[in-house]
Amino acid sequence: MEQRNHTEITEFLLLGFSDVPQHRLFLIALFLTFYLLSFAGNVFIIVAVNLDPQLHTPMYFFLGNLSFVDLGLTTITVPIVLKNLISMSRTISIKGCITQMYLFLWFGATESFLLAVMAYDRYVAICNPLHYQMAMSGKLCILLVGISWGLNSLHALLHTGMTFRLCFCGPNIIHSFFCDIPPVLALSCSDTSANHLVILLEGSCLASFPFLFILGTYIRIITSISKCHAAQTWHKALKTCSSHLTVVLLFYATVGFMYFSPSSSSSQKDNRVVSVMYALVPPMLNSFVYSLRNKDMKVSFRKALKNMSKLFLE
Questions:
Q1: pLDDT of 236 strictly over 70
Q2: pLDDT at 189
């Protein structure tokens, strides 16, 4: 605590993409488009899942939680990026940085667990369809989601607390567009070996468990459907799996690059690009992959448009 009291830094500077001022308007338009698409898609899913009785099933319950996570991931990052790009003020307070890091870690880790839960839901639906309602009971669904949110809140608290117990005495420029662990640790004048060890041990375990669970689940699914010779069954199951696995691979590839690759000053620009991919692209794509290609969500979307048109006509 004494070392902490001697720090002179009261705020950080989020460098973001300020080194390319000639592209400022393009970046504003790009981030705004990403955010609006992500916001509209995920809000629609959340509203539809809660209001449409036909979507009151385990799969859509998990999807609603995933959409809330995706909405949170973009909301805690993009508005600050847009503010900095528009006002050209790149500062963020220590408290603001702590809050953003905690929420980003919480939502990001929860997303990986929810993807694993959704993989299990699909496994039960495909491999044990007759026992689906019994296996995926309401209590189990709430328990799985509760564990995902609760466990990962502790994960975020651990890493955020360890990061901001360090001493920051300059410089204060974060080579990213939001407060994340690797660029913030790079600014500390304290020994960060313990932080990197915890990231390697706890972080890798927490990240690898859902990934290995998803991989094992889909191996079981493929093994199960391989016994079925109906082409329609193969096509339907593989189509569903490929969409889900595409998002999973994108999610874990960017996580691995961001948190487990060796850091170097020459890769800072690459890290910023990957952080955009990690923070913005999956939350935007999820709403399209999991809803607009889904028959029930399309029906719900048409109902919503029909009801809105009636309100305007009246």
A1: no
A2: 84
| Residue 222: partners with Cβ closer than 8 Å, 6 or more residues away | 241
**pLDDT of residue 309 exceeding 80:** no
Say yes or no to pLDDT of 220 above 50: yes
Give 22's contacts (C-beta < 8 A, 6+ positions apart). none
pLDDT of residue 164: 87
Task: Say whether pLDDT at 117 is over 90.
Answer: yes
3-state SS of the chain is CHHHHCCCCCEEEECCCCCCHHHHHHHHHHHHHHHHHHHHHHHHHHHHHHHCHHHCCHHHHHHHHHHHHHHHHHHCCHHHHHHHHHHCCCEEEHHHHHHHHHHHHHHHHHHHHHHHHHHHHHHHHHHCHHHHHHHCCHHHHHHHHHHHHHHHHHHHHHHHHHHCCCCCCCCCEECCCCCCHHHHHCCCCCCCHHHHHHHHHHHHHHHHHHHHHHHHHHHHHHHHHCCCCCHHHHHHHHHHHHHHHHHHHHHHHHHHHHHHCCCCHHHHHHHHHHHHHHHCHHHHHHHHHHHHCCHHHHHHHHHHHHHHHHHHHC
Q: Is the pLDDT of residue 144 over 90?
A: yes
> CA neighbours within 13 Å on the CB side: how many for 76?
24
